[in-house]
Amino acid sequence: QVKLVESGGGLVQRGGSLRLSCAASGITLDYYSIAWFRQAPGKEREGVSCISVNYHSTYYAESVKGRFTISANNAENTVYLQMNNLKPDDTAVYYCNSYDYWGQGTQVTVSS
Asked: Distances from the Cα of 79 to the Cαs of 10, 32, 34, 97, in angstroms?
């Protein structure tokens, strides 16, 4: 059974930092890409970042380039999203995804 569990969300001031974690079970990062999506109130879900350990590649949405960093720890089967210089526009529920599998989401709120 595949399970993705996010953690690390919270309330932070503009310019602050948070690190989100996505702990995966039932899949291994060697063979499965992991992506982060986010959904703000009244908006569609959008892709934020993605990592493929097997292909040594990462992707970032333009809106987060230079501020967010995605990484993976194969030993822990966990993907991290380090978010720096956060802005109020980053406020959203952040979801971890791998193909058809989704986590429950973690709330990130950035105050101005």
From this structure: 18, 11, 7, 11
